[in-house]
Amino acid sequence: MTIKAMLCSGLLASTLLAAAVHAAPRIGEPAPAFTAVDSNGRNVKLSDFAGRTVVMEWTNHGCPYVQKWYRGGMQTLQKDATGKGAVWLTVLSSAPGTQGHVDGPTANRMMKEQGAVPTHYLLDYEGKVGRAYAAQVTPHMYVIAPDGRLAYMGGIDSIASPDVNDIPKAEPLARLAIDAVLAGKPVAKAQTRPYGCSVKYAN
Amino acid sequence: MSFIRHLCCVLALTSAAPALHAARSEAQVSPRATVALLSATDVAAPGQTLGLGLHFRFQPGWHIYWMNPGDAGQAPRIEVFAPAGSVLGEVSWPAPERHVDGPITTFVHQGEVLLPFTVTLPPAFAGAAALSVKANWLVCKDICIPEEGVFRLELPAGTAQDSPDATLFDAARAAMPTRSEWRATVDAQGVLTLEGTGAGSLQSADFFPADWGRVEHGAAQTLSTAGDAARIALKPGPDFDPAKALEGVLRVRGADGVERALWVATPGESPVRTPVLSLAAADALPPAAPARPVAAPADEGLLWPLLFAFAGGLLLNLMPCVFPVLAIKALSFARMGGDRAAAVRLQSLAYCAGVVASFLLLAALLLALRAAGSQAGWGFQFQSPVFVAAMATLLFGIGLNLSGVFDIGARLASAGESLASRGGLAGSFFTGVLAVVVATPCTAPFMGGAIAAALGAPAPVTVGIFVALGLGMALPYLLFAFFPAAAAHMPRPGAWMDRLKQALAFPMYGAAAWLVWVLSQQSGADGVLHVLAALLLVALAAWLFGVAQRGAARPLGWHSAAALVLLAGLLALGRTPEPVAPAAVAQQAESAYSAQRLADLRAAGRPVFVNMTAAWCVTCLMNEKVALSTDVVQRAFADRGVVYLKGDWTRADPDITRFLQSHGRDGVPLYVYYAPGREGVVLPQILTPQIVLDHIAS
Fold this sequence. Notes:
The structure holds 2 protein chains of 2 kinds.
Chain A: H1 3-22, E1 35-38, E2 43-45, E3 54-59, H2 64-71, H3 74-83, E4 87-92, H4 104-114, E5 120-123, H5 128-132, E6 137-138, E7 141-144, E8 150-154, H6 173-182, E9 197-198
Parallel strand pairs in A: 3-4, 4-5
Antiparallel strand pairs in A: 1-2, 1-5, 3-7, 6-9, 7-8
Chain B: H1 2-14, E1 28-29, E2 33-39, E3 49-58, E4 63-70, E5 77-82, E6 87-88, E7 97-101, E8 104-110, E9 112-120, E10 129-140, E11 144-155, H2 166-175, E12 178-179, E13 183-186, E14 191-195, E15 204-209, E16 222-226, E17 229-233, E18 247-253, E19 259-265, E20 277-281, H3 300-316, H4 323-336, H5 341-371, H6 385-403, H7 422-439, H8 447-456, H9 459-482, H10 496-549, H11 555-574, H12 595-603, E21 608-613, H13 618-628, H14 631-640, E22 643-648, H15 654-662, E23 670-674, E24 680-682, H16 689-697
Parallel strand pairs in B: 5-20, 12-19, 21-22
Antiparallel strand pairs in B: 1-2, 2-3, 3-9, 4-8, 5-10, 6-9, 7-8, 10-11, 13-14, 14-17, 15-18, 16-17, 18-19, 21-23, 23-24
Helix pairs in contact in B: 1-9, 3-8, 3-9, 4-7, 4-10, 5-7, 5-9, 6-10, 8-9, 10-11, 14-16
């Protein structure tokens, strides 16, 4: 490959990448399809859950904002949602060597220790799912309605802080969205400010 | 009781501690940032608007966030505690920098930044202004750490004048974004148009929206110019509304090549922002603050540290360090027999006075060291090799005395002598002093928290807590003073006492041997050589004294010789080498604690067990022997992939001191277990294998 060709393909790739980055999913439009491997090595496709409410939660156990929520009720949120028939996908987009990156068995052990009960824990090391959803922070939350359309994207609640004591004072944005979608109602605040640590994508 | 009165007296005397006058608070230092509260003025006048600011200096790569953090992160929050009736201004935000990390764009401050704000004192305000600020901020590099601090300023009354930091405020003001003169509008497609002289000749423009969601933070911005207008194409975000004001900072480069930061606002309703600053009454400062504005009266908050200190002092009596000294004391009580109630009372009071006086001295020393900016903690004096060598020599000398090589005065020479003599009382007093000195390497349960509370508290409380420790430690002997009848149950004096005295020499030799080993950790082989030379000379001097005491022909000559040899021994001690560099000391490098290593391991999701220890800390060594070094614990660590980090505080180490303080401690031992993704859990100060296993299994 000549240097010129390399430069050209590099430019093309970065343009495509930029396009992918900014093609953020939109509320009311079909949620981006994906296939990912879960912590038990199984392939998981979004289409597997057609007709069901899907909640996606971006995670990184080293992030103080994620730690805040695992001390302050993430597990309850998961139990309540899955108990009412929703699918809960915890997504890890931390690239190898970055904060929060763990292998499947470690993820399983941590979930057990923390009492976390997602339907699947997706290992998105290359950040494909994260970039498709334009996930920016941990915890970034998405809710997909049974018709496959994106119903909510944004913050887990309304107070951006790492302080667990702020959870009861905050508006529970993600819980309100999940409950509305499960009840077949429109989500009042469908897109909100996500807060937290940046997702540790591969460069 | 008279002791309560005594305690109150001490508190009252010391509550007139000098106030701190400074236009700059104490800095809070972490491996990421150094943060302090600054004032642009030195003094406070009624109705004056004070220029204050939170100043950050970052280690390379670390940053905090602007008013709109961008795609991730969080702006700092500042809570101001000011005199009642004060009016708070707003934070003047400097222009941020764009930080692009893959698909995530954030707006940050790095290097060094001052976040200025104003506090206007009420017109009727008189006197010195005590101002405190409680702030929390998220500091990030590859990972994010929430930090918080409490900062305190006290500005004396007077006519306003510039502080040494005023130039920093001037520089910050000069670099602040200025309000743009251009007419700004935004259309439904997100094109920001600026019209006015010079707008048409802009070379570059970068817009930082002041609020989340108005425009996509990371989207490319295209600048085009025509006539006297500049157009910047922005990508509308989820909260974009052309009818509402779009506000933010515009970094531009003009035709002259000069870069400027402008504050741009389009017409319309301004968005409601979560306030960064909040105001609270000056007396509402959180209780955990490292510096409190005024000495707190003796309330419930003070009672608990005092009780814990008292209990801790009592338990010190059972620690192995103190035991040899107590044995001597017990012996002297036994000597007195049962029929000298008055003498027993005086002796025990003298002993208690010695204990309490030593604790007061320790408190004064700690306060002085802290005032001088040194990081001191419980047992800090054992970090000095000269001190350790001197203690080894002293204990060895006492051992020689107990063995009968020489006698001190006439007191121990015959058991029947009058014990109420001056020499006897002084002896009891110094036994108390010695008990405290040797007690320091042992941290009894309850004591860690009490001492940490003491060091974080105002001076009178510190002194009160140390007095409580002393009273606790002296309590058993105090009981003799108040119930002299108890002494009647002591066994009758007899020949057995000489044998007991000689036997008690051996714990002393043992303690000296242990301290020589401690010294070998601190100063290496040279240090051991010095202390052994000192011990040899002290033994020679003791023998010479003994000869003189046993009726030698020319006692003066023997005494002089003894004094000379003792002097030589002391000289050898004084030349004990300083601590050797940590690298030269045998320590497993792979398990040595550093703040960076702990952060890295936690970031990597590894479970970590941190053991903060010191060679002179007997409690630490016991815990390592009976719990941490056992096969079962070591195997459990290996099975679970727990990384064992050991911090050695034998020599002063600011990194470890900071770790101890961040856990509310001022001495070792400290054991903390970090499960993956969890906060650290502090283990008890007395360990068993089961306690360790329970913690790492949970």
